Amino acid sequence: MMNNELFHAFTQRSLAKLYLEKVFLKNFLTDVTHSTSVSIQTLKNLNVYFLNLFLKSISYYIY
Q1: Within a domain: residue 20?
Q2: Count of domains forming the chain
Q3: CA 54 to chain centre
């Protein structure tokens, strides 16, 4: 089992990586999709995807 400091650092690093991936994908999708409605719906789906991924990672660490 990891100690608290290592666990905290690993969690922070993982969250930062996820955030950067999300920002990159969001900017990329905004550039690629010119239709506003499609772009907004795609970004909403992307937010749901990352939220689910985040919750799964948290539940994995807890359990």
Answers
A1: no
A2: 1
A3: 6
- 31-61 as b/e, with b when 16 or more CB fall inside 10 Å? eeeeeeeebeebbeeeeeebeeeeeeeeeee
Domain residues for 63?
29-63
Between the CA of residue 2 and those of 12, 16, 20, 26, 35, what are the distances in Å? 14, 19, 25, 33, 47
pLDDT in tens, 10-61: 777 777 777 877 777 777 766 665 555 666 777 778 778 888 888 888 777 6
pTM score > 0.70 for this model?
A: no
